[in-house]
Amino acid sequence: MTHGDLATRPSEARLRLLTTATRIFYAEGIHAVGVDRITAEAKVTRATFYRHFPSKEDLVLAYLRAVHQLERDRFDAAVAGNASPGDALLGIADAIAESIRTPGFRGCAFLNAAAEYPAADHPVHREIITHRQWFLETITALLARATDEPADPAARHYVMLRDGAMAAGCLFDPKLVAETFLHGVEGLVRIHTGRRTT
After folding, report:
1. Do residues 167 and 69 both lie within one domain?
2. Same domain (yes/no): 98, 45
3. 48: which of 4, 19, 44, 72 fits an S-S bond (Cβ 3.0–4.6 Å)?
4. Both 115 and 166 in a single domain?
5. What's the first-to-final CA gap in the chain, in angstroms?
6. Closest CA to 107 of 45, 169, 179
7. Per residue in 156-170, pLDDT tens?
8. Three-state secondary structure along the chain?
9. At 147, is the pLDDT very low, low, confident or very high (cuts 50, 70, 90)?
10. Which residues form the domain of 28?
11. What pLDDT is stored for residue 9 in this prediction?
């Protein structure tokens, strides 16, 4: 192993901090959790924390980027596993529905964070918008491949269905919310892609 390998591989302490923060931020909120709580549960010192994350905001950004990558990996797998764009859109919806039905589901990490960081010029808010823009562009591109109709309105509709399901999934019966969401997406995809979804 070279020095370069050591330099590029995340340290165990950094991974522990990020894993701990991801769990607590998602379950309890970001502002409610302080650095002392995170370092205590991750079993690292404050000095170690600040060596990896110069501020709590840096940790929050790393948390959102980690969640983004998890979602991106799930959606990429759904696209790769389905030959047609219509089926890929349904596959992404299945992945979203599965997350809603997961024990401990607390809604969308990005919508939750947006409620805590409403200022449009804040770095955390900008990170949230970057994620949402990626999701909208992903759905728009799939719809554009599936139909000759303009894809933007249907893509926005898909995103709104997803947002509503993510909000409702932690307030009502997750199974029912997931079923309702999937039914809505299936109708949307059928209308906008016709027989090309099969």
Report:
1. yes
2. no
3. 44
4. yes
5. 49
6. 169
7. 999 999 999 999 999
8. CCHHHHHHCCCHHHHHHHHHHHHHHHHHCCCCCCHHHHHHHHCCCHHHHHHHCCCHHHHHHHHHHHHHHHHHHHHHHHHHCCCCHHHHHHHHHHHHHHHHCCCCCCCCHHHHHHHHCCCCCCHHHHHHHHHHHHHHHHHHHHHHHHCCCCCHHHHHHHHHHHHHHHHHCCCCCHHHHHHHHHHHHHHHHHHHHHHHHC
9. confident
10. 1-54
11. 61
Tokens read off for 165: 């399901």
Q: Please tell me the pTM assigned to this model.
A: 0.88
How many C-alpha atoms does 24 have within 13 Å on its Cβ side?
21
Structure tokens at 84: 């047609």
Query: Does one domain contain both 61 and 40?
Result: no
d(CA 182, CA 97): 7
